[in-house]
Amino acid sequence: MMVAGDKFFRARITRRVQFSPELWMIRVQASGEFKFAPGQYATLGVQGVHKLLERPYSIVSAPFEDELEFFFELVPQGEVTPELYKLQVGDEMLMRKVPKGRFTLDTSKGRTNHLLISTVTGIAPFVSYIRMLTRDSREQRFRGEHQIYLLNGASRSWEFGYLDELNRHAAQAPWLKYVPTVSRPWDDPNWSGEVGRVDDLVRKYADMWSLDGTNAIAYLCGHPEMIEHVKGILKRRGFPKEVIKEEIYWVPKKQVAVAT
Ligand SMILES: Cc1cc2nc3c(=O)[nH]c(=O)nc-3n(C[C@H](O)[C@H](O)[C@H](O)COP(=O)(O)OP(=O)(O)OC[C@H]3O[C@@H](n4cnc5c(N)ncnc54)[C@H](O)[C@@H]3O)c2cc1C
After folding, report:
1. Mean of the per-residue pLDDT values for the chain?
2. Atom 24 of ligand 1: nearest residue by CA position
3. Ligand 1 centroid, distance to 82 Cα (angstroms)
4. How far is CA 208 from CA 145, 198, 199, 212, in A?
5. Domain 113-248 sits in CATH 3.40.50.80
6. Which of 28, 75, 118, 123 is 20 to 30 Å from 248 by CA-CA measure?
7. Residue nearest to ligand 1 atom 49, measured at CA
8. Which residue, by CA, sits nearest to atom 5 of ligand 1?
């Protein structure tokens, strides 16, 4: 068994769902109370050959849930995800006791339109926001004062992970618009929704929803290139940088120039 020490909780897996060969979610029970805000991340640790290996993971679940949920993508050449991938129900990993991150829903700027844009696992913090708002709405602490506009990109529909749940919330919540889009529809003939890369759809939906640099806050999460492209688009639409929030999941390897 791994030793948790002062800084870590043990997190025992209670559920594991495989969405596609490379994408899966887990729910865990932590060995102590873990307080966080929707949009924050946890630092998970697995024992490597010589040392503990740690990585940040956005929390999918909302703070009122009694377990924590994570959505992972396997990076076959990576250090940590191949280890996480092996873990099954009943197995444990380590989790730092302190959550981190500022990628939370910003209701302090007087702007009530929130444009959320994600690729694949980058949906995680947004599911947490939406679960929280749905519950607050049910308990009448939230009455639709804030509008959520969510664009969610993946190559194929089985990579969304939370498609059914988000469609269900959107069907019931007047404050939520949800548009999933598939960039490789030729691999997914049964998909009848939006197609194209999420970055290429930002202009269309921002126009349709009348969102611009004067009335919205943008939240970009996931693939570094998507974030770069969308930031450029939003800046050209007049979004000041103070209203563009980002959570970049990894730093792309520098392209090595090949001499010819
Ligand atoms: C704030 C934050 C939240 C995050 N939340 C999530 C999350 O909810 N779910 C999740 O799966 N990941 C998330 N990540 C990414 C995660 O922390 C790891 O970087 C990722 O799981 C890869 O870890 P690894 O040890 O397997 O690969 P590493 O050994 O760290 O990386 C190997 C190589 O792969 C590249 N790489 C890393 N991730 C990817 C990727 N997804 N696709 C392509 N190349 C990649 C790296 O740049 C590196 O060159 C988050 C990152 C941050 C900073």
Report:
1. 95
2. 78
3. 11
4. 20, 15, 15, 11
5. yes
6. 28
7. 253
8. 57
